[in-house]
Amino acid sequence: MRLTTALLSLAASALAIENNNDAAQIPLEPSTVLPTEPLTLDTIPLLGFGTWNLKDNVSEAVSWAIQTGYRHIDCADAYGNEDKVGKGISDGLLKTGLQRSDLWVTSKLWNNAHGTSAPEAAIETTLKRLGVGYLDLYHMHWPVSQSTFGNNKIEYRDTWAAMGLLLEKGKTRHIGVSNFDPEQLKDLLNHTSHPPSVHQMELHPYLQQNDWIAFHEKHNIHVTAYSPFAGTNPTYSWPEGVSPILNNTVLQKIAKKRDCTAAQVALAWGMHRGTSVIPKSQHKKYIEQNFGSLKCELKKKDIKKIDELGEAHLRFNNPSKGWKVDLYKGLEGV
Ligand SMILES: NC(=O)c1ccc[n+]([C@@H]2O[C@H](COP(=O)([O-])OP(=O)(O)OC[C@H]3O[C@@H](n4cnc5c(N)ncnc54)[C@H](OP(=O)(O)O)[C@@H]3O)[C@@H](O)[C@H]2O)c1
Ligand SMILES: *[C@@H]1O[C@H](CO)[C@@H](O)[C@H](O)[C@H]1NC(C)=O
Ligand SMILES: *[C@@H]1O[C@H](CO)[C@@H](O)[C@H](O)[C@H]1NC(C)=O
Ligand SMILES: *[C@@H]1O[C@H](CO)[C@@H](O)[C@H](O)[C@H]1NC(C)=O
């Protein structure tokens, strides 16, 4: 079965969600051949586990996620916990009897490792910390190199070319970008023979970016939604007068009707539109509850109501001031 995001209908999306538990959907052994096809939704599990801000019982949380059924773990060098996440991965595999190849492991290249030679050393460090031989997906975390902060300069072409070599060397099965704006992505597409397989960006009911998602569908680039609970994480804060998303009455009413929680409704909505979602939690009960979103069935009228929340245009992750670079030009919520 080969579904492209462009072809994804409501029915197909429901099917993809159902199939998420199915071992057949899980990616195969790492390949040393360059993937020539864009990622399809039956290769990246639509529900993943986020690891930013995981502190204290990091390994326990990751292991619990795997034991609960998550098969996709979202990591990054910048989160400063890849060694502990790696312990959680090996513990989870041990406890479930699964193998490395049953998981989809994503990580990201930090801004201090841009350029032609640094990416290889960076991925080697990440692989070692995570205790895996290869990644399924390696993102460029941001289109900016730390060395150009303050000059309002953006650098990604050389870094992207270097990441392409990591594919050829079998260090990662796919490469992707994160936090690019339309001009940057179009420019990258114009200057590479290997388009990104995945773009990871902030997306939730308060920041829906429909046109931007449509652009990716057109180019067969899968989209992963980060911060699926909007401003809920401890690093962000809610603007005055805005109801925290999990307290939103629209989501709560739908949740009550469909026998879900507001968190599950937000995640189910994200998967329903073809994006993968990567909620983070350090609590067993939330890890389990969020996994239950695969069973939260939304009706068309629910989707319509959630779509209306998009008028908020709220973006929580924007480091452009601190880094002195323009980010997200032309996108919602800037
Ligand atoms: N590419 C990028 O630049 C980028 C940027 C941001 C995030 N990300 C990725 O996306 C992942 C998710 O985003 P995020 O960490 O920003 O935030 P998030 O997953 O949207 O929200 C996490 C927050 O929600 C709470 N929570 C989780 N499940 C809950 C539930 N069922 N009920 C109530 N509260 C719940 C968590 O609390 P507890 O942990 O206390 O349980 C935590 O405070 C990250 O971990 C990271 O992997 C990537
Ligand atoms: C982590 O510790 C907290 C506090 O003791 C607990 O509530 C939570 O369930 C623990 N998480 C895991 C995955 O063990
Ligand atoms: C990409 O190439 C197309 C076709 O040559 C051109 O029209 C477009 O302006 C280019 N975009 C960018 C951002 O360079
Ligand atoms: C949101 O809901 C939680 C739990 O139901 C509650 O403790 C909190 O006070 C609510 N916050 C707001 C701003 O309504």
What do these coordinates show?
The protein is α/β, with parallel strands linked by helices. The chain has a single domain (5-323), classed as NADP-dependent oxidoreductase domain (TIM Barrel), CATH 3.20.20.100. It has twelve helices and eight strands. It has helices at 10-18, 58-68, 82-96, 118-130, 157-168, 182-190, 210-218, 249-258, 262-272, 284-291, 300-308, 320-323, and strands at 49-50, 72-74, 104-109, 137-140, 175-178, 198-202, 222-226, 276-277. Strands 1-2-3-4-5-6-7-8 form an eight-stranded parallel beta sheet. The longest helix is centred in the N-terminal third of the chain and has 15 residues, at 82-96. The protein binds NADP nicotinamide-adenine-dinucleotide phosphate and 2-acetamido-2-deoxy-beta-D-glucopyranose (3 copies).
SSE succession: HEHEHEHEHEHEHEHHEHHH
Number of strands: 8
Number of helices: 12
Strand order of the largest sheet: 1-2-3-4-5-6-7-8
Low-pLDDT regions: 1-42
CATH class reads Alpha Beta
Bound molecules: NADP nicotinamide-adenine-dinucleotide phosphate, 2-acetamido-2-deoxy-beta-D-glucopyranose
Distance between the termini: 38 Å
Q: Characterize the biggest β-sheet.
A: 8 strands, parallel
Structural class: alpha/beta
What is the assembly state of the chains in this entry?
A: single chain
> Could you state the CATH homologous superfamily?
NADP-dependent oxidoreductase domain
CATH topology: TIM Barrel
Number of domains: 1
Mean of all residue-level pLDDT scores: 88
- CATH architectural arrangement: Alpha-Beta Barrel
Net shape: globular
Radius of gyration: 19 Å
